[in-house]
Amino acid sequence: MSNNTYNTIILGSGPAGLTASIYASRSNLNPLLLEGDTPGGQLTITTLVENFPGFKNGIMGPQLMMDMRDQAKNVGVEIRTEKVVKVNLSIYPFSIQTEKEEYFTKSLIISTGASTRWLNVDGEERLMGKGVSGCATCDGPFFKDKQLIVVGGGDSAMEEALFLTKFASKVTLVHRRDEFRASSVMQDRVKKNPKIEILFNSEIKKINGTEKVESVDLFNNKDNKEYKLGIDGVFIAIGHNPNTEIFKDQIDIDDNGYIKVKNFTETSKEGVFAAGDVSDPKYKQAISSAGIGCIAAIDALHFLEDRNLL
Ligand code: NAP
């Protein structure tokens, strides 16, 4: 076999991928982790993480991911910052093609996570980086004393709205239904914050502006009225799409794009495992992703041992 052939290749470097790599390395699988173009995954664009056990005062998301990456390196994981452009799971060992090189692997752990979902309304793409953003942590400080909109009704939208009140003079939370899906703790914090106004039953139809965002066209789906609201920035926080494009037609994927798994990590292709947000439409937590990443590495080890492939 070529020296580009690994026992295990792990795709993605969020909590699932890094945990899988740590377990795989400590099982002497000498894994290769291809960390993709967003090293650390979604936690690198969050602020304080208060629900990852072990940090009594919480920990900043980027710090947590840097520490996890260092831990992976310290236990011998080979990490390469390469993005996978194509996989071929119909040959064995499986082929993994990045922009730079082709690798082969006897087992594969997919932990490519999920990407920001956009509204797909007029003006959104054109004004990206000019007032339209998907990351309050990254762009919030640019909006000191400005008026902002956050779109969404989940925990992400609550978190972004609360964070943006540190900079903005006012944050308007726009949600399409008349109740949030966010946890009650987060909802309470939002409702108590005097800088946040909530617009229920509201949808953005268009984002206006030439050089930068100036206003949005809002539609109230209860009274069917459309009106314009002057605004300096629009933060979209409506969830994520699983990153599964390159696996389509090679393993089973559900209608929403998530990889289908049984027994936590097993995909429809023997020897291919999935962990984290890419296969989890329900829990989507850093700690649950890390847990499934651990299981994926142990499953990959058993797969290789049971077939005398090591
Ligand atoms: P989410 O829970 O899926 O919520 C997405 C929100 O966006 C929903 O309110 C949804 O509306 C709305 N939405 C979806 N598509 C839309 C569209 N095209 N136009 C307008 N609105 C749209 O996603 P999330 O908030 O990113 O949270 C994902 C997971 O991470 C959750 O499990 C959450 O608990 C977790 N999380 C936790 C924390 C924390 O604990 N600190 C922070 C962030 C996220 P509907 O409600 O009408 O469907």
Question: What labels describe this entry?
Answer:
27% strand, binds NADP nicotinamide-adenine-dinucleotide phosphate, five-stranded parallel sheet, 2 domains, 23% helix, FAD/NAD(P)-binding domain, alpha/beta, 310 residues, elongated
The helix content is 10-25%
SSE order, one letter for each helix or strand: EHEEEHEEEEEEHEHEHEEEEEEEH
Number of strands: 19
CATH class (first level) name of the largest domain = Alpha Beta
Which architecture of the largest domain per CATH?
Answer: 3-Layer(bba) Sandwich
Set out the fold topology:
Blueprint (H helix, E strand, L loop, with lengths): L4 E7 L3 H12 L5 E3 L13 E2 L9 E2 H14 L3 E3 L3 E5 L5 E5 L3 E9 L3 E3 L15 E2 L2 H4 L7 E5 L3 H10 L5 E5 L9 H9 L3 E4 L2 E7 L6 E6 L4 E6 L2 E4 L3 E3 L29 E3 L11 H21 L4
Parallel strand pairs: 1-2, 1-8, 2-5, 8-19, 10-17, 11-12, 11-17, 12-13
Antiparallel strand pairs: 3-4, 6-7, 7-8, 9-18, 14-15, 15-16
Please provide a written account of the structure.
The structure is a single chain. The chain is an alpha/beta fold and 310 residues long. The protein folds into two domains: 5-116 and 240-306, FAD/NAD(P)-binding domain; 132-236, FAD/NAD(P)-binding domain (3-Layer(bba) Sandwich), CATH 3.50.50.60. It has helices spanning 15-26, 61-74, 136-139, 155-164, 184-192, 286-306; strands spanning 5-11, 32-34, 48-49, 59-60, 78-80, 84-88, 94-98, 102-110, 114-116, 132-133, 147-151, 170-174, 196-199, 202-208, 215-220, 225-230, 233-236, 240-242, 272-274. Strands 1, 2, 5, 6, 7, 8 and 19 form a seven-stranded mixed sheet that branches. A five-stranded parallel sheet has the order 10-17-11-12-13. A hairpin with a 5-residue loop joins strand 6 and strand 7 (94-98). Helix 1 (15-26) runs parallel beside helix 2 (61-74). The longest helix has 21 residues, at 286-306. The mean pLDDT is 95. The structure holds NADP nicotinamide-adenine-dinucleotide phosphate. NADP nicotinamide-adenine-dinucleotide phosphate is lined by residues 51, 117, 119, 151-157, 159, 176-177, 181, 238-239, 284.
